[in-house]
Every structure is written in structure tokens, then in C-alpha cells.
Amino acid sequence: MPAITFIHPDGKSDRVETGDGESAMQAATRHGLDGILAECGGNAMCATCHVYVDESWLARLPDMSDDEDALLDGTATERLPNSRLSCQINITPALDGLVLRLPARQV
Amino acid sequence: MSASSSPEINGSAVPHLDVDPFDMKFFADPYPTHELLREAGPVVYLDKWNVYGVARYAEVHAVLNDPATFCSSRGVGLSDFKKEKPWRPPSLILEADPPAHTRTRAVLSKVLSPTVMKQVRDRFAAAAEERVDALLEQRSFDAITDLAEAYPLSIFPDALGLKPEGREHLIPYASLVFNAFGPPNELRQEAIARSAPHQAYVTEQCQRENLAPGGFGACIHAHVDEGAITATEAPLLVRSLLSAGLDTTVNGIGAAVYCLARFPDQWQRLRNDLSLARNAFEEAVRFESPVQTFFRTTTREVELSGATIGEGEKVLMFLAAANRDPRRWDKPDSYDITRRASGHVGFGSGIHMCVGQFVARLEGEVMLTALARRIAKIEISGEPKRRFNNTLRGLDSLPVTITPA
Ligand code: HEM
Ligand code: FES
Questions:
Q1: Is B278 near chain A, with CB under 8 Å?
Q2: What residues of A are in contact with residue B114 (Cβ under 8 Å)?
Q3: pTM
Q4: Most A CBs within 10 Å: which of B110, B278, B342, as the mutation test of the A interface?
Q5: How far is the C-alpha of B262 from the C-alpha of B250, rounded, in Å?
Q6: Structural class in CATH, domain B3-404
Q7: Residue A70 lies in a domain
Q8: pLDDT tens-place string over residues B257-283
Q9: What is the pLDDT of residues A59-103, one digit of tens each?
Q10: CA distance B73 to B67
């Protein structure tokens, strides 16, 4: 199974194994990771699963939908060019090793 | 109450139960019956109303997330709109399926988005502070009337842009809507019999000219100009907010205060760390499930966890029972404000998941923050009284006494 790494604002990192067909958000919440809230449970409504994607991975992610784009305008911390919603990133074998940085807060 | 297996139901052994989940005795204490429903099997059949039922988290979640098979357009109450005339014109969002639902949903999602919540946040928070000022003067009060109702009433109708006159219809109208999802019992029949003045008020208020500029209602109508919805659809979408936007939060805030008054250790934890307020509200929505149930109707024969359900069958989802399913939750019967509560189905799940959830969370968060910052203790000082509704769970009265911080 592909594994992905979350880097906390204090620099500490957590590597989590992902399950079959899981999104980055689901993998994070299943491991009880702090820093991803996911209030809407992955329905692309809340923007509380915001992550900053490590620059070297950005181009390899699936394109974002208009809904995700609009929601990213409502994130709690500043939207940056590498902002994504982790519930919209489905982890495929090609994303093994993906690095995601967590924002300081989600609400 | 008995559970018996019957092989006749479409050949699969679905346990038949003779419980009535819309009965006063059930409402008074639903938990033993919830457990019975969960433990009887993944899918049960309720002979009293001839419906299937799901009470475990996995099946409730599965039904919510398969809207093509378990549709909403035939009504999310017991009544099947294919067989019976709906008591009011159906909702264009709640009682709709894709693609119709997708379009109306997009409009309400924009009107009630997290971005819009940032704009109303300060106003909602200031009103919460004002409410707490008044409560501190009173010291002893009814936490339902003076807090859980008074607070949303002080902000939501204004946020919608409603006129000051006639607002006394709002709570009776919502209570009617949620009773009407139930079976034709006394609660439903009486509510519908007395509905005419409330319906007349609501129909009138949903018109564009009656909604103040800048409010949620006017924002819905503005989408007509962009071509997203028609001028005849807009009033019905405003109606959805009048139906689902007030009484739900009254019961949500009431649930949170009832929890925090009953569990003083959790109240202290919240006082020690106000950043827990939002999750304390979320956990109250899981723990009490202000919206207890909704139905779906099958669009085809389907197999669900080994049970075969035919086409055109009503399936009752016990959201409240799923929110306390020990298969999904650790210590499900304890109210824990640090619990990772997201994933509960108190707001539903999937395409119909509550479109007003950010309004509800904002109200809950700012109210609990204001209370916890300024009040040291909340003590229940009289017998809580329950309010009975076919869908909503909450109290009618909760006498409390507070000690200032
Ligand atoms: C604690 C408060 C609330 C609770 C527990 C709650 C619960 C729910 C639930 C369980 C659903 C799913 C219905 C289904 O799947 O058939 C829902 C949908 C909905 N809610 Fe809420 N709600 C709350 C507050 C609000 C507020 C404040 C509003 C409006 C401002 C609102 C408007 C709606 C609407 C319009 C829908 C239909 C969405 C759709 O079908 O796509 N709700 N709510
Ligand atoms: S979990 Fe809500 S948008 Fe990702």
C-alpha cells in the first residue's frame, strides 16, 4: 500500500499507510492525525482538510474541480498556489511517498 | 417487543420487529430500542409501518451514500410521493435526486458556504455575548426558551432577511415539517390539521420582495439572475431554510447545553480550553442527534448486507442509533468533547449532507464559547421536560441555574 507523509507546522512528520482507494484525508483521520479536521466527512464542503502540497509533487496530483477551487477560497489559513483539499486527493500507487504540509489551523 | 426471523421477505432472513419508533414511549427513552434494532441485524423490517430499517453505522452510511438506489425524490418521510400526494409541494433539494438536486444544491452551498460564514461570524458571536449578558442577569432560567430558542431567533431570521412581523410562525412551521416526515400518527395528523396559517406565512415570506437585501434569502433569489435557478424555484429554496434552519439549531444548541449541564467534567474541560467549543457542539450533535431519522425509497431491487430489498420500499435510517453504534464508536454512550466526532451522521452524509451545517456549527461554537468564558457552573435546577416530534429530538424545558465565572 502506498504511504504518504504529513508534515506538521512544528516540523514533525507522520508517515501513514493508506488503505485501498482511500483519500489522503481518510488516511489521516483513520490514523487519528491531528491537523486534519474534515468536518464534512469528505463531501467537499468544509475546507477543513486543507493541506499544502510539497512543490515537487504538485504536478502529479489530479486536477482540481471547480468546487474544490471555490472552497479553497474559504480556508482558515491563507490559500497558497499549492493549497489542496486532502479529501479530494485519492491515493494511487503513483502517489506513494507524497508529502503534504499541514496548516496551523483548519477553522 | 420481539424479534423473529422470517424467511418470506424476499427470500432473505430479515428480522421482523414490532417496535414503533414514532411512539411516545419510544421517544421518552429511545436507547434500548436503538440497541435492539442494531443488534437484531444489519437490516430489519418494522411491521408496524411496513418499512425496512437500518440502525448500524455501516448500513446507514451505505444507504446515505447510494442515492441512485436509495432515492429522496419519493419523499424522505414515510409517505411515498409516487403513491400519495405530498402534504406540501416537495422540497427542491431535500426531496430531489440528481441531476435536479445537483443544481439546487449548488446554489444553497454557495449561499451557506464557509466563506459566507466568515462574513457573519462577528455578528453571530456578538449576539451570543448579548444573550449571555441577559442570562447572567437572570441567573435562573429555562435553557430551552431563554437560550436554545432565544439565541437562534435573535440571529437567523435576520440573517435570512425576514420581516419582523409573523416570526412566531417559524418554530411551529418547522415542527410541522419535521412531524410530517413521520407516519400518520397523532403528531403528524394534528400538525397538518393546524398547518394553514403557518404555511401561508412561509409562502409569503419566501417571495423576493419580502426578503431584505444582503440576507441568505435575497442571495438565493440573486441566483435567478445568473440563470442557475428559475424565479419559481427560488421561493421554494428559501422555504428550505425556513423549514430546516431554525428548529434544528434550537435542538442542536439545546442538546449541547443539556450535555454540558449533565456532564460537569466536560464543562470544565471546555472552560479550560475554549478552542474545544466547536467540537463540543459537534459531539453533542452525535450524542443527541437532534435529527433522529430520515427515510429513503428504493429505486430497484437491491442487496444490502445480505438482505434483499425490493423496488419501491421505504427504508428508515436511524441516524441516532448509527451515531452510537459500538461497531463504529469507542464508548458511544459517553459525551466526550475531545472525541474525533467527524464522520457521525447527525448531519447526514453524502450528497444530501446538511447544507446548513456551517450555520449550525457557527451558532454552536460561538454560543458555547460565550457561555464557557463567562459562566463557572451550569446546574440543572428542575425536571427537564421532553418535546415530542416525529423526527426532531430535544427538550421542551430545561430549568438551570448558573454561577458567573
Ligand atoms: C444542528 C443542526 C442541524 C442538524 C442536526 C441538521 C441535520 C440535517 C440532516 C441529517 C440532513 C440530511 C437529510 C437527508 O439526508 O435526507 C440535513 C439536510 C439539510 N439541512 Fe440540515 N441540519 C441542521 C441545521 C441546518 C441549518 C442551520 C440549515 C439551513 C440554514 C439546514 C438546512 C438543510 C437543508 C436545506 C438540507 C437538505 C440538503 C440536501 O438535501 O442536499 N440544516 N440536515
Ligand atoms: S473533508 Fe470537508 S472538504 Fe475535505
A1: yes
A2: 45-47, 71, 74
A3: 0.95
A4: B342
A5: 18
A6: mainly alpha
A7: yes
A8: 999 999 999 999 999 999 999 999 999
A9: 999 999 988 999 999 899 999 999 999 999 999 999 999 999 999
A10: 10
